[in-house]
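Dear support,

I submitted the protein below through the web form. The confirmation email said the job was done, but the results page showed an empty box. After a refresh the structure appeared. I'm attaching both so you can tell me whether what I see now is the final result or a partial one.
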Amino acid sequence: MKKISLLILIVSLISCNSDKKTSEIKTEPKKLNTELIGIYEYKALKQSENHYLVIDTLNGKYSALYYGAEDNSRFGILFYKNEIKKLTIENNTISFEIGKRELCENSLMKVVKQERNLEKKSIIAISRGLLKYNGELLKDSVKLKCQSDYGDCWDSEMTFEKLTDKK
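What the results page shows now:
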């Protein structure tokens, strides 16, 4: 009986000690860089065709939207707004994907005061080709490279400048 009690005591001590090591190994959640939050603009040749990258945080993680344009051979320049998938921001790098895009005639980057002022978007086409972006985060800009199996990238390399309140 004493041997069993001693064995239970030893197992308990080892268990407590390993719990302590496990709790020491646990790390704090990553701190998000709030300086990254904002709207970034890629200036195309025509202002109406500019692209926008909106980075924010949600539930302790980065989230982002992409407002872009695509040159459609049948309908000309079409626009889309997509939530970014597989967003990874680490150190000074960023990568993400944009999948199926509902292409519309008018830019979807509109600022309106009330929801009733929103026009219904008319979807002209669907683009299903995956867009893969990766690049680097600089002080006030994001440099991205785009890859697409179907040539759907607006440009292979794009630099987005952070918009500020300063004029």
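Response: this is the final, complete result; the empty box was a page-load delay. Residues 2-11, 16-28 have pLDDT under 50 and may be disordered.
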